[in-house]
Amino acid sequence: MSVFKIAGMLLMGLFLAPTASAEELTPFERKLTVVKNGTVIVGEFYDILPNCQPRGTIVLRMIEEPKLGKTRLKTEAGFPNLAADARAAACNTKSITLMRLYYDAGAELGQDQFSLDLFYVAGTSRRLNYTLNIR
User: CB under 8 Å to 88, separation ≥6 — which residues?
Assistant: First the structure.
């Protein structure tokens, strides 16, 4: 199992918000289509304070690896996509450092899937299940 430690990041690109509870959150399901030998962004991860500074460290743990492609995680600049009423909503107009999770499809057509567990700074976690149709 590979583990990605992400300093100061939280999954917000998929519109998931952290909570203060230690309970496990409902699994997140996402289906995407990608062309063979193509690449798609499957998620953006960050965790920021209202002053747009990183909150802390979160962890992504691969549970099920994809079989027809590969995933990769890159640190890049980008803009958060927080709800208008979020405490850090003013950060939506500021470039921050975030992590992007990419899926690189192979040459084989078909359906691929992979799963990750995401552990938030606040003590919550979420299972992320991805299904990719390769065409």
Answer: 48, 49, 50, 52, 80, 82
CATH number of the domain that residue 121 is part of: 2.60.40
pLDDT per residue rounded down to tens, the chain (135 residues)? 444 444 333 333 443 444 333 356 678 999 999 999 999 999 998 888 899 998 887 788 999 999 999 999 998 999 999 999 999 999 999 999 888 999 999 999 999 999 999 887 888 888 999 999 999
Residue 11 sits in which domain range?
3-18+25-134
| pTM (2 d.p.) | 0.78
